[in-house]
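Give me the fold.
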Amino acid sequence: MNPIEGLLYFLDRMVRIATKYSSFFGQGVMNTLIIAFFAVLLGTILGTLLAVMKMGKLKPTRWFATAYIEFIRGTPLMIQLMFIFYGLPMAGITFPTVSFIPNFDRFAAGIFAMSINSAAYVAEIVRSGIQAVDKGQTEAARSLGFKQSQTLMMVVLPQAIKNILPALGNEFVTVIKESSIVSIIGIADLMYQTSGVMSVTYIQLETLAVAAIIYFIMTFFTSRLIAFAERKMANGTR
């Protein structure tokens, strides 16, 4: 078999696998996007709070935020996930189960682990976005009688969001790819479903290639949507 025939054979097997097991891959894509969406949503909320704490004047909260960010960014996500899923129940902390949502406790643990990990990175993104806002904006708001909290929520953060939107979009793309790690605790994301297909077909390389293309499609279109939203916001401020 020459290289051209080998490539065509490889592509043909990819198409056959993608077609025959499309429902498996489709379920995996849906679960992956659900995990990524909630992880970034919760991570953004927590990360914003951490950024405000780190920039605040209270030393205990500033030290806590700094320690949290440094520790989470300095340890592997896999260890964080394993500690949350296996370690917390040993301490008497368990995730709830929902009868009509299969493996809800696993999903909750996975989303929680991804969220606290994403929050550490989002905190630095938000902090840099806040610091990029002209200090004159804060001074003007305070001169108008705004309290510090009002200045932050009504003047600084709205401008910071515009500055950090591309970085948040990149974080969402990163979380989509990193979410593959939740397959180790039995969550049926795309990587878990890919492993299932490989165990049934005994075809590994072609199955992984299909998964890689699906991941690329998800991240590519997510990036394009973020870029579109960024352009709309830029046009809206003109």
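The radius of gyration is 22 Å.
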